[in-house]
Automatic annotation (TrEMBL), chain A:
It comes from Umezawaea tangerina. PANTHER family: 3-OXOACYL-[ACYL-CARRIER-PROTEIN] SYNTHASE 1, POLYKETIDE SYNTHASE-RELATED. Pfam families: ketoacyl-synt, Ketoacyl-synt_C. This is 3-oxoacyl-[acyl-carrier-protein] synthase 1. Belongs to the thiolase-like superfamily. Beta-ketoacyl-ACP synthases family. Its EC number is 2.3.1.41.
TrEMBL record, chain B:
It holds the Pfam family ketoacyl-synt. Residues 18-201 form the Beta-ketoacyl synthase-like N-terminal domain. Keywords: Transferase. This is 3-oxoacyl-[acyl-carrier-protein] synthase II. GO terms for biological process: fatty acid biosynthetic process. It comes from Umezawaea tangerina. GO terms for molecular function: 3-oxoacyl-[acyl-carrier-protein] synthase activity. It comes from the Bacteria. InterPro entries: Beta-ketoacyl_synthase, Ketoacyl_synth_N, Thiolase-like.
Length: 410, 363
């Protein structure tokens, strides 16, 4: 089955679809990243009575009917609406017609933390009030994790496609993108639609609140006095194809995917592990064929919790003699869970294409224990060659993705 | 991992060990005996423990986390996690310590429906009904995150390679297999443990009941997990393991309308057989998913096999619909049957996706 392959093929990103609290669509998202816009405001999607504080980064102005042409919005949970809308945007952004994308063998992979837990929250609410006999069949049917990827297939009318949801929690976006990269690289498929999606839900807000990790007002990654995360939502979907394919159709190339690394701490259910993360970064560098000194900036997991930011910057300093600028877009977007590293990947691709480093907002004073240049508050113009995107998840699941500027001779 | 000569990663990958925690009991032998005998493993549900719409289910007999894994570390472990940890543990015990000699080069790929919907919805219920909305048990929070079973299996057994959770309804086990193969070919691991796990719970039963689309009698639900070791044939031989089956191909397709499901299955199977380089007449054994798309699935398989008359093994009828674990049990069933020749495992999901795997069973 491998004879016809000319592997490994180079893989490039040619389309971006984003649904975020700082803007829907690439143009608005890019403007938001450059301006250091914040999507944070009081949560309205569930009743927050009884919580002392309840800010989050929800998307207010998203109407699925504006974006979905084939899928029925009410048959999709909110996370699937996000993913299907982002996929449609990404294909359009890639300059690929529906006929073109349907004619190609495709992989769809969508990372998530909670999938349709928003629906599960609402179902249990009904169950508590009225009993389990009264659950809405449409909502029950749409509440499975597989829907986040199959809804993209349905919306785009794909038939020659492998669709998979990757619920590897808060690192899932990078897992999904890495999978699409491997499938293109090995010549298994001709286009990959990959990223992540999640919707704000009571369950996850409550869990983090109970752990004492929800910030009272704002998320401040790498800040001396940081107070935690804010839960956010959205989706980011990337169109990836082989370099030959992109060149043949004259596509705009945002960036090249150079490689990625995955590993598992196999240590603690929720606490990150510095040494293991450092090994994952080294793995990603080796797979991508880059050295630490090649990396021009790091898009950190940077959740804004005490533990994450100090552990993550420690791992970075373990690998880098002099760490490059290390930023987190979670100050702007909150923690969008399974979408987080997909949206960060989209931000990295835009940063490479447009020549700037997105800022870490809400910043006053850098924690000396972190000791990184987090590009405080204001975006920085920069010519970028290689960019690193970190993601960490519960259960010690690490994923590090390396993107590079596309050059015609490597 | 520091080998100076690049490893050729394009060769055949084989299943060289597998384990199951199933309604037939703990272990692959119990599963194989049950499937080969065609024994019905569903039982009457005790309606006090499992109130709900289903009178029967295929439960793993007398299974509890503490019973299977001991008291230490299982106080807050939910059922699906315990099933996964046990199934992975069975495989490791069968293979011996060599399996994890290089723990960072072993991948773990585990399928799930939506994690434990019981754990997720109980957690939200506590938030909704407690005196304060944050009166929830923080130790239970990780159970509500869908990578819990895969992550806890890695923690329990010390598996440090890529740790990935896969979801795709009835196709989950096939998607996990496809993912694991790419993980190996991409150089991210040197061997992979892959499979899926699903628990029976009152909450899952209600969601499945309301979510079912067929208008006939709802089939019973089942639970359990199956895990496989995937590695290059030569590595299996070096380690003294017998290749049980070579994985020749996986393939997936989708259909927009139900009426197109049959064609999608036929196209998918034909493409997979072509990819595998085997002819339809060579298919000796078929393990379909069954369930609500059984008619279309059988018709599509028959279309693709073009007059062939393979033997069929139908797991769902034996121990209930195990949802996300279903396709992994189908794979286990063809390994249990064995006997050489080409085996085909197929699936159709109600979300409009189909998939299949082509295996060459050891003679």
């Amino acid at each position: 089955m491998h004879e016809e392959r000319q592997s490994p093929r180079r893989v490039v990103i040619t389309g971006l679809g984003v649904v975020t609290s700082i803007g829907i669509g690439v143009t608005e998202f890019l403007a938001g990243l450059r301006a250091g816009r914040s999507g944070v405001k009081p949560i309205t999607s569930f009743d927050t009575t009884g919580f002392a504080h309840s800010n989050g980064a929800e998307i207010d102005e998203f109407d699925p009917a504006d974006w979905l042409e084939r899928a029925e919005p009410e048959e999709l949970g909110r996370a699937s609406q996000f993913s299907a809308a982002a996929a449609r945007m990404a294909v359009a952004d890639a300059g690929m017609s529906l006929d073109e994308v349907r004619a190609r063998r495709a992989l769809v992979s969508v990372g998530t933390t909670d999938a349709e837990s928003r629906d599960l929250d609402n179902l249990i609410g009904v169950q508590v009030e009225q009993g389990p006999e009264r659950l809405d069949p449409v909502v029950a049917r749409r509440s499975t994790a597989g829907r986040l990827s199959s809804s993209i297939v349905r919306e785009l009318g794909l038939t020659d496609v492998e669709a998979v949801t990757i619920p590897t929690a808060c690192a899932a976006g990078n897992y999904a993108i890495g999978y699409g990269f491997d499938a293109i690289r090995d010549g298994d498929v001709d286009v990959s639609l990959c990223g992540g999606a999640d919707a704000v839900c009571r369950k996850t807000f409550t869990g983090f609140y109970r752990l004492g990790t929800i910030a009272p007002e704002v998320c401040q990654p790498f800040e001396r006095d940081r107070k935690g995360i804010l839960t956010g939502e959205g989706a980011g979907i990337l169109v990836m194809e082989s370099l030959d394919s992109a060149l043949a159709r004259g596509a705009r190339i945002y960036a090249e995917v150079l490689g990625y690394g995955l590993n598992c701490d196999a240590n603690h259910p929720v606490a990150p592990d510095r040494d293991s993360l450092a090994r994952c970064i080294e793995l990603a560098h080796r797979n991508a064929g880059v050295k630490p000194e090649d990396v021009d900036f790091i898009s950190a997991h940077g959740t804004g919790t005490k533990a994450n930011d100090v552990t993550e910057s420690g791992a970075i300093r373990q690998v880098f003699d002099t760490p490059p600028p290390t930023i987190s877009i979670k100050g702007m977007l909150g923690h969008t869970m399974g979408a987080a590293s997909a949206l960060a990947s989209a931000a990295c691709a835009l940063a490479i294409k447009e020549g700037f480093i997105p800022p870490t907002i809400n910043h006053v004073e850098t924690d000396p224990e972190c000791g990184v240049d987090c590009v405080p508050n204001v975006a920085r113009e920069a010519q970028l060659e290689v960019v690193q995107n970190n993601a960490l998840a519960f259960a010690g699941n690490n994923a590090v993705l390396i993107l590079g500027r596309y050059r015609d001779a490597v | 991992m520091t080998a100076t000569t690049p490893v050729d990663r394009t060769g055949r990958l084989v299943f060289s060990a597998w384990s199951a925690v199933s309604p037939y009991g703990i272990g692959g032998d119990a599963f194989a005996a049950g499937v080969v005998a065609g024994r019905d493993a569903t039982t009457e549900l005790d309606q006090e423990t499992y109130p709900g719409p289903y009178p029967r289910a295929g439960l793993v007999p007398e299974f509890t986390a503490a019973g299977a894994l001991g008291r230490k570390g299982t106080r807050t472990m939910d059922r699906v996690t315990a099933i996964a940890v046990s199934a992975v543990g069975q495989l490791i015990d069968d293979c011996g310590p060599e399996l994890l000699a290089e723990p960072d080069r072993v991948g773990l790929v585990l399928g799930t429906g939506s994690g434990s919907v019981q754990s997720i919805m109980d957690f939200t219920k506590d938030s909704l009904t407690g005196a304060k909305p944050y009166h929830v048990d923080p130790a239970l929070f990780p159970n509500t995150v869908m990578n819990r079973a895969a992550g806890q299996s890695a923690i329990w057994h010390g598996i440090k390679g890529p740790n990935t959770t896969i979801a795709g309804g009835a196709l989950t086990g096939l998607l996990a297999l496809s993912y694991a193969m790419r993980l190996y070919r991409g150089g991210h691991c040197d061997r992979a443990l892959l499979g899926a796990a699903e628990e029976y719970s009152v909450q899952r039963a209600w969601l499945e009941w309301h979510g079912r689309t067929g208008d006939g009698v709802a089939p019973s639900l089942g639970e359990g997990g199956a895990v496989f070791l995937l590695e290059p044939k030569s590595d299996a031989e070096t380690a003294g393991r017998t290749a049980l089956a070579a994985v020749l191909a996986t393939r997936f397709r989708a259909f927009g309308e139900t009426v197109d499901a049959r064609k999608a299955v036929g196209d998918c199977v034909r493409a997979a057989l072509a990819q595998a380089g085997v002819s339809a007449a060579d298919v000796r054994l078929v393990a379909p998913a069954g369930g609500e798309f059984e008619t279309a699935e059988d018709a599509g398989v028959a279309d693709a096999l073009d007059g062939g008359t393979p033997e069929f093994v139908r797991c769902g009828q034996l121990f209930g619909d195990t949802s996300a674990a279903g396709a992994s049990f189908q794979l286990a069933a063809v390994l249990a049957k064995g006997g050489g020749g080409i085996a085909l495992v197929t699936g159709v999901d109600r979300d409009g996706t189909v998939g299949c795997a082509v295996l060459e069973l050891a003679g």
